[in-house]
């Protein structure tokens, strides 16, 4: 990153202190804040989160099993025009993801046409052979996608990852907004900020819309691994806000390929399960026999068309980073259009030339496991030690097909309150895209994650990152741009 100009989303690329057009009220708010005022508001927000129990778990860290994600009081802002482009690109990409999943579990035309290599799909750990030939109700597979975006300039947005299995973090988007409304109401007078509080309603409506055909009043539940899971707060939060039951595997049973929920008043048939359990743990009769989290017989009920699983089993094939590298071709294949949101340039280390380039430039690149997540299994070459680089070199040479490499981009920054005052910190962005029987919906917002350590590009909460509220501005011309 040395020598690269970093784009700041408030100040632009200028070395002066002139805010970007339309963002001047935020600059004035920051500069005119009384000494200690922002710190007090931030501490109040974190105390609020702690009192509400908004925590996550860090597996393997006994000394701090539950903690709050650090919250930053200075919001990130998107203009109406920026959001219009992002929402169009997200809809295009998620439609292509659903078409791709439907194809690879069905006709496999994209493989026959040589657009994506067969072995990278059919030999992938995320390919669920049990789902081959099966269609979920209404033909929707990836009902909820969290698409991770990065920015490098005024108009330069890139997709970094497609989270199509069980994307998390949306509760932080909602709670961050509640904190900002309570603690910084003057910002909502200065900016025409579009609301995000309709997300639980949109999610509930989507769940109802994908119930098996012929269901008049569907019963929906949220299936959680339990209170020891790192995202349990979010599971409880979403179930409560949607008005549906939060259940564990032991609360459900399958009888004659129909799913039932046990209640004190007797059994209730379940039509839609928003599952926050990975494929491997869903059904011990099909996947891991030692799983106590899932429901025996659940896959049989799903394959019989008697219950909808959200997201559908097998969606992880579109979540894999090796498949990600083909997403521009996948978008073109199914939409006939150029991708509105491009990928980050990616080298597939399974290819000899790409592997050699990666080995020759390890100290310059970001190298990732194709099935990694949470910031783990990743090398950031410019900040890595010689020992780390040597270890990755050995791993790449031993199993090159397990890795991709990408350039170390100059991620955009947003002013952030840190111990030393206000300083730029790198950010990414995860909007949440819902797909039901009636098409694609998304609220105007998402989760901004911020790397709180100076110079760091790792925004994951498990790696020391925090969150910010994401303001999407309404079009002052009288209309709200973008898809809702």
TrEMBL record:
<dbReference type="Pfam" id="PF14403">
    <property type="entry name" value="CP_ATPgrasp_2"/>
</dbReference>
<protein>
    <submittedName>
        <fullName>Circularly permuted type 2 ATP-grasp protein</fullName>
    </submittedName>
</protein>
<dbReference type="InterPro" id="IPR025841">
    <property type="entry name" value="CP_ATPgrasp_2"/>
</dbReference>
<dbReference type="InterPro" id="IPR051680">
    <property type="entry name" value="ATP-dep_Glu-Cys_Ligase-2"/>
</dbReference>
<feature type="domain" description="Circularly permuted ATP-grasp type 2">
    <location>
        <begin position="75"/>
        <end position="451"/>
    </location>
</feature>
<dbReference type="InterPro" id="IPR016450">
    <property type="entry name" value="UCP005522"/>
</dbReference>
């Amino acid at each position: 990153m040395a020598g690269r100009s970093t784009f700041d989303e408030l100040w632009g690329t200028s070395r002066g202190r002139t805010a970007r057009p339309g963002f001047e009220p935020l600059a004035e708010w920051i500069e005119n804040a009384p000494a200690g005022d922002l710190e007090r508001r931030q501490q109040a927000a974190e105390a609020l989160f702690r009192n509400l129990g908004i925590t996550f778990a860090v597996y393997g860290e006994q000394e701090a099993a539950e903690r709050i994600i650090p919250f930053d009081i200075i919001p990130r802002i998107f203009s109406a025009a920026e959001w219009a482009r992002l929402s169009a690109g997200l809809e295009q990409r998620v439609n292509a993801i659903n078409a791709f999943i439907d194809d690879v579990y069905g006709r496999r035309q994209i493989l026959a046409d040589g657009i994506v290599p067969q072995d990278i799909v059919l030999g992938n750990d995320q390919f669920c052979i049990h789902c081959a030939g099966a269609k979920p109700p209404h033909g929707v597979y990836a009902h909820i996608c969290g698409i991770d975006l990065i920015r490098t300039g005024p108009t330069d947005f890139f997709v970094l990852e497609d989270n199509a299995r069980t994307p998390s973090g949306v509760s932080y988007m909602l709670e961050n907004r509640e904190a900002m409304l309570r603690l910084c109401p003057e910002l909502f007078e200065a900016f025409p900020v579009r609301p995000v509080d309709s997300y639980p309603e949109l999610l509930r409506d989507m769940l109802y819309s994908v119930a098996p055909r012929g269901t008049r009043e569907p019963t929906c539940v949220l299936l959680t691994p339990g209170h020891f899971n790192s995202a349990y707060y979010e599971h409880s939060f979403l179930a409560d806000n949607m008005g549906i039951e939060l259940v564990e595997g032991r609360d459900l049973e399958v009888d004659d390929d129909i799913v039932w929920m046990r209640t004190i008043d007797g059994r209730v048939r379940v039509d839609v399960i928003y599952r926050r359990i990975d494929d491997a743990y869903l059904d011990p009769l099909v996947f891991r026999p030692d799983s106590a989290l899932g429901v025996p017989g659940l896959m049989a009920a799903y394959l019989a068309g008697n219950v909808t699983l959200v997201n559908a089993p097998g969606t992880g094939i579109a979540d894999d980073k090796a498949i990600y590298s083909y997403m521009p071709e996948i978008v073109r294949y199914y939409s006939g259009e150029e991708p509105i949101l491009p990928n980050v340039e990616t080298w597939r280390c399974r290819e000899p030339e790409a592997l050699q380039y990666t080995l020759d430039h390890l100290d310059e690149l970001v190298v990732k496991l194709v099935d990694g997540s949470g910031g783990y299994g990743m090398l950031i070459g410019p900040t890595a030690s010689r020992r780390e680089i040597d270890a990755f070199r050995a791993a790449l040479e031993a199993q090159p097909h397990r890795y991709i490499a990408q350039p170390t981009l100059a991620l955009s920054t947003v002013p952030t309150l840190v111990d030393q005052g206000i300083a730029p910190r790198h950010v990414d962005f995860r909007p949440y895209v819902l797909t039901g029987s009636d098409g694609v919906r998304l609220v105007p917002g998402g989760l901004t994650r911020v790397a709180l350590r100076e110079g760091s590009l790792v925004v994951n909460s498990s790696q020391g990152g925090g969150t910010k509220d994401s303001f999407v501005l309404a079009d002052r011309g009288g209309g709200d741009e973008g898809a809702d």
